[in-house]
Design a protein that fits this description.
The complex is a heterodimer.
Chain A (H helix, E strand, L loop, with lengths): L1 H11 L2 E5 L2 E6 L4 H12 L3 E9 L3 E9 L8 E8 L5 E3 L8 H12 L2 E3 L43 E8 L2 E8 L6 E5 L11 E7 L2 E8 L7 H5 L4 H9 L6 H16 L5 H29 L3 H22 L8 E2 L2 E2 L7 H24 L2 H7 L7 H7 L4 H4 L7 H4 L20 H23 L20 E9 L2 E9 L7 E5 L1 H12 L5 H11 L3 H5 L1
Helix pairs in contact in A: 1-2, 5-6, 6-7, 7-8, 7-14, 7-16, 8-9, 9-14, 14-16, 15-16
Chain B lengths: L18 H13 L9 H10 L4 E2 L6 H9 L22 E5 L7 H10 L5 E5 H6 L21 E3 L6 H16 L15
Parallel strand pairs in B: 1-2, 2-3, 3-4
Helix pairs in contact in B: 2-6, 3-6
Classes of the chains: A alpha+beta, B alpha/beta.
Chain lengths: ~550, ~190
Amino acid sequence: MKEPIEKIAELYNAETTENGGRYELTLAKENIHDAAAYLKREYGYDFLLEMVGMDYGDTLGVIYYLSQSTNPAPLLVLKTSTEKSDYPELYSVCDLWDSAEFYEREVYDFFGIMFINHPDMRRIFLRSDWNGYPLRKDYDANPELNPIPHRNEFLVDMERVPSITMSMGKEIETTRSLFDHDEYIVNFGPQHPAMHGVLHLRVSLDGEVVKSVDPNFGYIHRGVEKLCERYTYPQILHLTDRLDYLSGTINRHAFCLCCEKALGLEVPERAVYIRTIFDELTRIASHLLGWGSMCMDMGSITAFIYGMRDREKIMDIFEETAGGRLMANYSVIGGVANDIHPNFVKRVKEFIPYMRKMMKEHHLFFTGNPIARGRMDGIGYLSKEKAISIGATGPGGRASGWRNDIRKIEPYAVYDKVDFEEVIRADGLTFDRYVIRLDEIEQSLRIIEQLIDRIPEGAFLNKPKGVVKLPAGEYFQRVENARGQFCVHITSKGDAKPYRVKFRSPCLTLVSALKEVAPTHKIADLIMLGASFDYVIPCIDR
Amino acid sequence: MEVKDIRIPNMKYEDFKDNEYLEEYVDELRKNGVNIFVGKINDFLNWGRSNSVWPLTFATSCCGIEFMCVGAAHTDFARFGWEVTRNSPRQADVVFVCGTIVHKMAPVLKRLYEQMAEPKYVMAIGSCAISGGPFKNSYHVVKGVQEIIPVDVFIPGCPPRPDAILYGMMQLSRKIKVQNFFKLPGQPEIAE
């Protein structure tokens, strides 16, 4: 870990600081691309976890979180900044990591930083006619500048794609057409039953075969990160549940962990156990829904009804203890909101053998079905290298053989005290991504089984005194939600409200995996591929 | 239901010349064992309409999952004839706005609404669709779908429980039952 940092500091004149066990390198904007390329080439930093855009007041900046796929636990942080002008610029790193393509478009959308050599500098979430960059501190939120469009509009197939390239020391601004003029384009979404949300894909077809896919996000962009800057920390908890609502409890857990780490708050052991059990129940519920809707996309409505039936048992358990069904609203900073219901342990113990029995039924009913296998086998290959470069964490990446489970890499809560397997499959096909979810349900049951009898007695909440104010600094926490690595980045200036909050959406990278995998497949398989990655759109759009 | 109850605007009961003929005819048929039902065609149509409402699948976020729960085994809305969820707005009677509507989605929702055939209804599910909910202060959120399209039933909750959604459906059924079908389309008018 020490060696690359010293080397970069020496070669590129970087400033090195340490923050909570992570090394941070501050680089000049001219050097960022070269330093990143050096790190990737010489030290195998092949995974760009996250890019956080920042508005420091008088400058704009970007924070890069890097890691190695061979040694995923330590994170290396690169920081750079550029002057705040009408056209701030940075060098793109999307030639090094595929995940940077969407991340940089997001930074451009929110902060207006143009990335030189990025092939596609369109806005990613907001409408192309949007005025201003909303996450800048001097953003004018006057609704008259951006009125609500009341007229219905056609979906356009064609779009001009702007980009800036550097050639012979000169910047050249170019625009190109998104598709050729003789290409056959099908608009898929935003309102489509098989889309699992309001994603809009422009699909270019050659007969029945997909040539390319252009995802269009933002139909559910709710501006959560900007809202966080207006809310206090306990209020933000409410929003975290509603990002990826199927793993809402886990996302909330991540935010609580981040705040607790910053405050140095000790969480009662009882709360930690309860949180872990809730997380795993949420994971089962999410995978059941993902499984059910994937089968429904293949035409099996029965599977969907079965999945929802089993999921309802978990919802009942949640409701009894937490009061909420889908949104449990359970974890709070310092513990959990209230103690578990007297029936909780009994109900969970009843649920485990029930679920095991039903899993057999699910496998019998669908996994071995020749029609289902015909649609899943040999389709949608995602290689391990590509999965890492895209940053497709979670079951999507593990199906390609990439070990990326945060519960194993960087155990939080009580995952270091339980015995479970990180399910890995090697082939990276649609069938692997299908079956890995069912196998993970079994592992989650194992975890719950080990914990349910060991919930210690004692307090369930260690409430922080007074208004929660995080000490000034930057905090980072990642957890494994049902779709991959969910990360929370908080920059605090010591106030009751954060200066900047960034959530890493595991689903955004899954859509870039879809974009990578879809070409050469039939249009009918596109729906299947999307379902196998199981993305949740509000998590992407935030 | 009796023939005598029929009211026609601008025309009194006495003004019809064939009242006795119709009433006697119905009595005779009944006397001879024919199962005859006489009523207002408006009531008959509304009875059918209110019991087979076809929703459009339109879910933007979290409330959509609870809507799926309403459709699944535990709280099955097929019991009330609502189960035929349509994917095309042309075939749908009601649009369930499940979730937040943002600036980019507003024209799409408007377009979907305009593509639906009359008579059409809108249900705003969840606090986001009602007022913007927890995201009310955001720069990119529409503060309630009624800013874009007229709403018939509001179902509060974040997200509402499936039972609450069922209750809202019953409210819409009730509304359909008291409408005068022959004064549709246009702004639906409530009969007295």
